[in-house]
Structures are given as C-alpha cells and as structure tokens.
Design a protein that fits this description.
6-stranded antiparallel β-sheet; outer membrane lipoprotein receptor (LolB), chain A; about 10% helix; mainly beta; 12-stranded mixed β-sheet; 20 strands; Phosphorylase Kinase, domain 1; about 350 residues; 2 domains
C-alpha cells in the first residue's frame, strides 16, 4: 500500500471519474420527451442521462469545488460506432490528464513523470457510479424532482437523491432537459451539507469530434509506467480464503477483486471493490516490510475519506466517497480468514 499522501494524490485525480453519470444500467426503458410543465420520473430521467452520457459526442469545461478549493477541467467524449474515446484535462494547478479508449484508461502525471494504465469496466471516465443491474438502489436512496434550473445556458431538471442511512452520501443532479446530459452534481452528507460541487460552465454537444483531440498534450516517453492491466489477477478463491470484511453497510456487495502492483511495494496489494450500485468503496490489504513507513488514521478531501490501520504486519486501507465512519468500520472489521 502506498503512503496515504500518495494514495490521496491518486484518489484525488481518480475523483474525476466519479462525477458525471451516477447511474447507468438501472432502467432500460426509453421514455418520451416531457413538456416543461410535466415533472418526469426521476429514475427514468437518470436512466436517460446515463444513455446520453455514453452515446453523445460532447466537449465541455467544468469546475470541481471541494474543501474550499476549486479545480477546472475539460472533458472530451466521443462515441465512434460504439467505441468510447475520452480525454480529461486539468486546466489549473498541476498538469494531469486521463485518456480512455473503451475499457483501457491511462492516467498521466507529468510533474512526477508517472503514468498509470489500467482496465476499467466503466463505460466512461466520469461515471464510477454505474449500478449493477442486479442491485436495487431504490432500497437505499429516495429519488425526487425538486424543480428546474439553468446551468451553462441550458435548462435543467433538478433531481435529489437522499440516502436512507448515515453510511452513505446523498446527491443533487441538474440534468439537461434537451440533451439529458448531466450539467451539475452536488455531493451532500446526511445532514444535507454540500461536500463537493461539480458544474459545467461550458458544454457543446457535437456531431463529430476529431480523433486528434484524444491524444495527450505531452510526450510520455520518459515516464515511469505502472501497468495494472498485466498484473491484475482476478481471484475469487483468494477472496474467500484469505481476507474478509465482516461488516459492510447494508446493500453493498463485493463486485471486484484484483492484485494491484504499487510503487512502494514489491508484493502486489489485495484490492477489494464494494458498491451499493451508487457509492463505491475500495479496500486495500498490503503486507508490510521493515523499510516501509506505517500509516494509520483518517484523511479526507471533499467527500472522499481514507482510513488506514496496521495490524499483524499488514496495512489495511479503505477509500471511498462515503462518510468517515463507514470506512473506519469496514477497516476495523477486515480479518484474515482461518
């Protein structure tokens, strides 16, 4: 497991994959266009948003506010005969870019001369919250239409998503009435306090986008590459016989397990992925050596909380866009199976 500062740095950048389409495969039925005077069903509206996010071509600039800070990003998305191409570019602060071609994702950190390549089952960069079709998130969240608004010069429906317990966060979404693209997203705690705010300030829906716009803006020839594709090992048996979290919030299921290489460890790290269909939590278990520093405690930025605990020569860390209490309870419940 890398040090918490490294993990937070990588997680902070991966945050930009959390923020666009919160729900993708929940409903499959298309619905007719609503007149502005008729309130749409919020779940159907979110389903339309998910389809638009994947199928349309668009180029936009959005702001991401968290912890009294603000980042400005550009997102370019193209659907070319079913193949998905995307590029995410940081416009302020340290230079950072993400480039996707279908399920292959490359993360570039030019200041550190580091690039990470990995495979993702997600359909687009800004959509980590893609529910499993076998899960019913309606059991854990309440959906409502709050009214309408206007973002980036576009009229939008405002959808509120409220959790039923204190182990997950709520969301407020502004969905374009015409294109059905997400225009704004707020992450809220159980008391309704804003933790993050992602908002487009410019968004163009286009017929086509040049392939040249999906290449990074710098040479990566002298980068250190971390290839998680060739090293990821799916091992359900390992999950069942080694490590197990005895407490997970109701509704969360384990949807993935890999062994991930880490820059600070010669031994691959066990990586467990849990989701309730909307929120996602990663749990890492790393065997420590004598040279590695031991990190314990909680860190956070925006709505992402990280908690680490060292026990019996291992470091266990949970990272997720869920409350601090949730990651702490999960880590404290992880044990080595007999």
């Amino acid at each position: 497991m890398p040090e918490l500062s490294q993990l937070s740095h990588r997680s902070n950048f991966l945050k930009f994959s959390y923020l666009f389409a919160l729900i993708s495969y929940l409903f499959f039925n298309a619905i007719t266009t609503y007149a502005d005077s008729i309130l749409p069903d919020p779940k159907n509206l979110i389903a339309e948003m998910s389809i638009a996010t994947s199928q349309l071509n668009y180029d936009g600039i959005f702001t991401y506010r968290y912890d009294k800070k603000i980042d400005t990003m550009r997102i370019i998305h193209k659907n070319k005969e079913g193949d998905i191409f995307e590029r995410l570019i940081s416009l302020n602060g340290n230079r950072r870019e993400i480039v996707r071609e279908n399920d292959k994702v490359k993360y570039f950190f030019p200041e550190n001369k580091i690039a990470i390549i990995e495979r993702s089952k997600l359909g687009q960069l800004l959509s980590s919250y893609i529910p499993d079709t076998n899960q019913s998130i309606s059991k854990f969240y309440v959906f409502d239409i709050l009214g309408d608004g206007r973002i980036a010069g576009r009229n939008a429906w405002i959808v509120n998503i409220k959790p039923i317990d204190r182990f997950r966060y709520g969301y407020q979404l502004w969905i374009d009435k015409k294109s059905k693209l997400l225009l704004r997203s707020r992450l809220k705690n159980y008391q309704g306090v804003n933790l993050e705010d992602v908002m487009f300030v410019k968004l163009d829906v286009l017929e086509d986008i040049s392939d040249s716009l999906f290449k990074p803006s710098f040479s990566s020839n002298n980068f250190t590459w971390i290839n998680n594709i060739k090293s990821n090992i799916n091992s359900d048996r390992a999950v069942q016989t080694k490590w197990k979290a005895s407490w997970i919030p109701k509704g969360f299921l384990m949807t993935g397990y890999t062994k991930d290489p880490m820059p600070t460890s010669k031994i691959p790290v066990d990586h467990f992925i849990y989701t309730d269909g909307l929120a996602t939590i990663s749990v890492y278990v790393e065997k420590l050596n004598h040279q590695q520093s031991i990190n314990s405690g909680t860190t956070n930025f925006g709505g992402v909380n990280t908690y680490s605990l060292s026990t019996n020569g291992y470091q266990i860390t949970a990272v997720g866009e869920v409350p601090k209490t949730t990651v702490e309870l999960i880590v404290n419940s992880v044990k080595l199976s007999p």
